[in-house]
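Try this one yourself first.
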């Protein structure tokens, strides 16, 4: 009985483990063009659903009050887009003397230069009872910043430049993050509409 209660309490982590195990057993289900069509369901539908649900569950006052925590936002963005890439670079200097493949190290540096994940940051913050409004703001703001900052970091640490489709990335972020959040807030503002999906 205690095990069942624990599973119910930790449903999110149990779900992650089950999904990873399923992906290991049958990876073809989740590839681009596969039955789950992650290029649509993950990139657009799942992210939009998460932010729509956040819009439903958060009061407008909570979102607006989160905007004024300038020190918090500065800390998160500097940690994510400056400290972490630099720490990864230092760590990779140690790993470079090992026989680890050079391209694997470059891949780790590339991942280290990425902006915060839009959806998982919000989900994990909500799961542990953190400041969801601040997580939403920093996820969205960090992703918009990353359009400019990530190519600069890659140029600095790897010496390679890349072309970034600013317009398409900006429009995708706007349509999957900002618009669903606003729609959720509009629904929340309607009398009697305080329900949310999860």
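Now uncover the answer:
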């Amino acid at each position: 009985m205690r095990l069942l209660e624990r599973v119910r309490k930790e449903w999110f982590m149990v779900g992650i483990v089950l999904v990873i195990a399923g992906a290991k057993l049958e990876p073809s289900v989740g590839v681009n063009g596969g039955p789950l069509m992650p290029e649509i369901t993950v990139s657009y539908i799942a992210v939009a659903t998460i932010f729509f649900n956040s819009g439903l569950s958060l009061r407008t006052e909570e979102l607006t009050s989160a905007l004024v925590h300038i020190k918090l936002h500065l800390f998160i963005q500097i940690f994510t887009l400056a400290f972490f890439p630099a720490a990864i670079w230092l760590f990779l200097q140690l790993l470079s003397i090992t026989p680890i493949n050079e391209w694997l190290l470059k891949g780790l540096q590339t991942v280290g230069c990425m902006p915060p994940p839009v959806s998982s940051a919000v989900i994990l913050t909500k799961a542990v009872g953190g400041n969801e409004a601040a997580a939403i703001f920093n996820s969205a703001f960090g992703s918009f910043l990353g359009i400019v900052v990530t190519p600069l970091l890659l140029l600095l640490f790897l010496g390679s430049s890349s072309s970034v489709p600013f317009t398409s990335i900006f429009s995708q972020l706007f349509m999957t993050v900002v618009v669903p959040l606003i729609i959720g807030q509009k629904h929340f503002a309607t009398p009697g509409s305080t329900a949310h999906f999860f």
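Discussion: Residues 192-198 have pLDDT under 50 and may be disordered. DSSP finds nine helices and no strands in the chain.
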